[in-house]
Structure formats: structure tokens, C-alpha cells
């Protein structure tokens, strides 16, 4: 088998006494679109942040093209990060900059492109996510939540990265826009030949985006397989999750009166 | 609970915090000399720290100079030495009150703004987004702020010196019956360059201290809106106390050697 584009080996992370990731293993092949599903608070966002080096895992290794990047710092880390794009769950747009500059940020700051060319690319990218040139001149705080999400998506793909992370790309969008974004992700990933790792709660979205799906539960990927097999995974946890049933092996710690 | 343990824990916590702060300040200074340098951001900070602090610093100075002249007039009147008012006013303003009061006022304005701004960026994951876009947050966020405050504080204090002396001059000539020409003559006659320069050196140090405190507390902020509020309060309180403490140390060092 070819070297996976991205591998997580036995990655563990605790916050205080809360175990979030518990020896997580995951391999994603080059050009593949992998979707991680899992309940709220199971550590999906933490997993992405561990790969990006924003959170240091307690143990385990993260490999890109077979190279260990777990402990890279400074310029070496930046060199690796230039190959990544990330859509944050909360958008995380810079509110001191207009929307176009947010999208152009990676081009200007990390790649040293001049502002005029970068702005042109930014406006082109914004158009692809359904935001017009006028929106580019607004401040992020002047956008609706869904528009912010799309602007953040534009920022994640503007530098044409090799590996793109989408943390809940369609949460907070209407179903039509959600589908537009899903298709856009599929198209971008295909056009760029990029490898994508997405997180979603939305099964419709997962089915559109994914080549393979994995389910995160109690700090591990408990099942993974091609999207076509998700309905006959034979895994009770996966079945409960994709059918959205309160009854099953996963118990939510909430009181129902 | 064992009271000794509490004392021990508090002491250890204090030194741990002091160590973290020292490392942060060291990293900030180091980053000034390591590219990339964001000139545009420095310019923006110079304006926001310098220009927009002028009103508050000027008002503080004019009233301080005025009240100083009145009190010294009463005090020196007890042994018929009213003619020393101009000399003591300019001495007090340039050496102590100018830099210290400007430092405290700017701490209230600028440290708070820096802590709130960086704290919000931290809790909305904008700092994480910056890192992901291969941009060093020290170069991008901290260096322009620290440099701007360190460079602008001496200029502000120079202005504050002039306005403070003017406050004393106005009260003395308009209310206390001093001759205008004589007052100005006495102001400059016994003034030495070192009086002004020592105040400007203090100002630069205060600028560094107050910006580091603002950036440090904002950068390490956590816990949502409440955390940002706490960071802002801590920034202003610790900047003010550190300004007063370093002022004492500097006075001891500068004026006894
Ligand atoms: N910086 C942090 N400090 C302490 N605990 C954290 C931190 N970040 C995340 N956690 C904890 O880690 C767990 C997983 O968080 P994470 O954000 O990864 O969840 P998630 O799977 O992305 O959930 P959601 O679908 O709701 O976004 C949570 O219990 C959270 O409280
Ligand atoms: Mg999440």
C-alpha cells in the first residue's frame, strides 16, 4: 500500500483528568476525502488541532507523507502548515480585516504574494462560495453566520492546499446552501487533488463529501469504511448515530423527565 | 486546610507566573529582531497608542501641573520661598509625575484594549487561525504593539511635560499673581537636560511594561467573555502596579548614581 498522506498513530490527549483522545489511529490516502462523524464533545476538533500543532498531543505521532511532524516547531512547523488549509468550526475570521483580506491572508502573509494579485484570487474564491465582490469589502462582523462560514471556507481553500480540514462546514447553513458547500468541497478536493478530512454531524453532508467515513467514539475511531458500507457497518454505535436514535449503546448523560 | 500549604502554593504560583511572564517578554523582544516585520501593523499601532492617547495624557498633565503649582505655592509660602514654585513644578513634572501619570493613564487605555483585543482573538480561535495560516502570532500581533507603546510613550511624556508646565504656568500667572516672564525664566533656569531625559527613559520602560502586560494577559486569556473580562482587568491592574514598582527602582538607580 502507498504511504498515506496523513496518519495519526496512537494519538492520545488528556485535559486534566478528562481523556479526549485515547490512542487514536487513522490513515488517509492521498486524494481521499475522509469524513469523521461522532457525538458532540468526543474530541473531533481536538483531533484536527493536534494535527495542526495547535494542541500538543500527550503521546502518539502524526505523519504527513510518512514524515513525523508531531514535534515540529517554528519555521519547520510553518512550512508544513503552508500545505494545510483549515476551516474552523467557529469560522475564526480576523475581525480587524475585511473579508477579502481574510481570504487573501495566506497568500499575502505566508506566500508573500502582492496584495493586488492576492485580492483578485480572493474575490474569485469568494465567488465560488457564493459571495459577491461587495461582500469582500465588508467586515466579518457584518456577515451572517452562514456567510461567515462560507468566507472561512474560501479562506481555507484560497491557497490551494494539499490537505484541507473542514470542521463542520455546513452547520448553520440552510439545506440548499449546505448542499452547495458540500458539492464545492467535493469539486475543490477533486480539482486540487487535495486530501480532505471533514467533520460533520450531518449524515446527508457526510454521504455527499465522503469517500470513506470513520466514527470517533471514546477517543478512538471505532469503525471506518467506504461510504457505501455505512448502512451495513454491523456496528451498533454507527447504526445508532446515523439513524439518530436516543436508544442504543451510546448513552447521552442527560436527564429526560 | 493547612495554612502553610496555602502560603507555599501561593508563593509557587507567583513565581511560576513571573517565570511565564518573563519568558513571554523575552520571546516578544527576540521576535522584534526576527523577520517578518509587519510595518503596516506597527504604523496602525503607533497611531492608536500615540495619537489617540494624546487627549487623555494632555488633560491629566494640565490638571496635575495646575494643582502642583497651587500646593507648592501654599507649602513654600510657609517659609517665604514662593519664588521656587516654577522650579519645583517643572522638576516634579519631568522627573516623576509626567511619566508616571501618563504611564498609568495609557495603561488604563492601551493595556486594556490590547488585552481585550488579543483575548477575543484567543477565545474565538483567531490566534489558532493565524498559526494555521503559517503566520507567527508574536511577529504579527505582539511586536507591533510592544514596539508602538515603547516608542510612543516618550513622545507622549514629552508632550505631557510641556502641557504640565503650562498648567502650572497658567495657575501661577492667572491666579497666584506670578509675573509671566519671570515664571518662564525660573522654569528653564534650573532645569537640566537629565531631568527631562530620565523621564523619557522611564516613559519608554513604562510603554514596554504596559504593552507586555496587555499582550500577555490577552494572549493567555481563556474561558469565553468572562475570561476576556478577567484578562482585561488583570492587564490594567498588573500594568499599573508594575509601573509604580519599576518607577521606584528606576528613580533609585537613575537619581542616586
Ligand atoms: N483547550 C481545551 N482545554 C480543556 N478542555 C478542552 C479544550 N479543548 C477541548 N476540550 C475538551 O475536549 C473535549 C472534546 O472537545 P472537541 O471540541 O474536540 O469536541 P467536538 O468533538 O469537536 O465536539 P462538537 O461536535 O460539539 O464540536 C470536550 O470535552 C472539551 O471540553
Ligand atoms: Mg468541534
Question: What's the short version?
Answer:
The complex is a heterodimer of chains A (257) and B (257). With 257 residues, chain A is of the alpha/beta class.
Question: Which features would summarize this protein structure in a list?
Answer:
heterodimer; A: 257 residues; alpha/beta; 2 domains; six-stranded mixed β-sheet; four-stranded antiparallel β-sheet; B: 257 residues; mainly alpha; binds adenosine-5'-triphosphate
Largest sheet of chain A: 6 strands, mixed
Q: Please give the count of helices of chain A.
A: 9
Largest sheet, spatial ordering of strands of chain A: 6-7-8-3-9-10
Alpha carbon gyration radius of chain B: 21 Å
Oligomer: heterodimer
Range of strand content of chain B: under 5%
CATH topology of the largest domain in chain A: Rossmann fold
CATH superfamily of the largest domain in chain A: P-loop containing nucleotide triphosphate hydrolases
Helix content of chain A: 25-40%
How many discrete structural domains of chain A?
A: 2
Compute the separation of the termini of chain B in Å.
Answer: 48 Å
How would you describe this structure to a colleague?
Chain A has two domains: 1-83 and 165-257, P-loop containing nucleotide triphosphate hydrolases (Rossmann fold, 3-Layer(aba) Sandwich), CATH 3.40.50; 85-160, no CATH class. Chain A is built from nine helices and ten strands. In chain A, the strands form two sheets. Chain A has a six-stranded mixed sheet with strand order 6-7-8-3-9-10, with helices on both faces. A four-stranded antiparallel sheet of chain A has the order 2-1-4-5, covered by helices on one side. Chain A is of the alpha/beta class and 257 residues long. Chain A has helices at 44-52, 74-81, 99-110, 115-128, 133-136, 145-157, 175-192, 203-209, 236-243; strands spanning 6-15, 18-28, 33-37, 59-64, 67-68, 84-87, 163-167, 195-199, 212-217, 220-226. Chain B has one domain. Helices cover 85% and strands 0% of the residues of chain B. Chain B is elongated, with a radius of gyration of 21 Å. In chain B, 46% of the residues are buried. The A-B interface holds A 49, 52-54, 78-79, 81-82, 84, 86, 88, 90, 92-96, 105-106, 109-110, 155 and B 36, 117, 120-121, 124-126, 128-136, 140.
